[in-house]
UniProtKB/TrEMBL annotation:
It holds the Pfam family CinA. It comes from the Eukaryota. Residues 118-139 are annotated as: Disordered. Residues 14-116 form the CinA C-terminal domain. This is CinA C-terminal domain-containing protein.
Length: 194
């Protein structure tokens, strides 16, 4: 690899996941996830690492608002007023995952992945006009908008609002969200050491 080149995503994901799991194991702490946008990909990145069962307890895929409310305890007021693609929802999901998964740490992801599929990109077709990037989701959010929240012991609470390129595919936005979620978790663990 030449100097200045980025590492492939899979290598970066593996490095972040390994660092998270090793740190948690050393601290005798556990982690759970609450995922909407990423649909279990954060949990998959963590459980791809051998020995992850020592710290990874559970993951909740809460794609619908009903699931966010019933399984994770996200306030209906939050879901109705600011919507599921928001800082408040991501925070509520992470806090709910701490309780539901009975863990020390939780990572939550929510967002709008977008409408462009891999097959449309390969065939150089654009989505129909009513589905193009200018169209917001049912909640009024734009393609590539992501909220991530990590919470843990000693009231550690970190959030990120990200806006990925609206011309990315759904898969690109979801993978970027997983990478960003793991990066935020690494940052949270470093914060906990201070």
């Amino acid at each position: 690899m030449k100097s200045g080149e980025q590492q492939p995503r899979s290598t970066t994901l593996q490095q972040h996941a390994t660092k998270i799991l090793q740190t948690l194991k050393l601290r005798n702490e556990t982690i759970g996830t609450a995922e909407s946008l990423t649909g279990g990909l954060v949990s998959a990145a963590l459980t791809d690492i051998p020995g992850s069962s020592a710290v990874m307890k559970a993951g909740v895929v809460a794609y619908s608002n009903e699931t966010k409310a019933h399984l994770l305890g996200v306030s209906l007021r939050v879901l109705d007023s600011v919507g599921p693609v928001s800082f408040e929802c991501a925070k509520g999901m992470a806090e709910g995952a701490l309780q539901a998964c009975k863990t020390d740490w939780a990572i939550a992801t929510t967002g709008f992945a977008g409408n462009i599929t891999e097959s449309q990109l390969e065939s150089e077709q654009s989505p129909p006009p009513q589905q193009q990037d200018s169209r917001a989701s049912a909640d009024g959010n734009q393609s590539g908008l992501v909220f991530i929240h990590v919470c843990g012991p000693r009231d550690i609470s970190l959030s990120r609002r990200l806006q990925f390129c609206s011309r990315n595919t759904r898969t690109q936005n979801r993978v970027s969200a997983v990478e960003s979620a793991l990066e935020l978790m690494v940052e949270a663990l470093e914060t906990a050491m201070i």
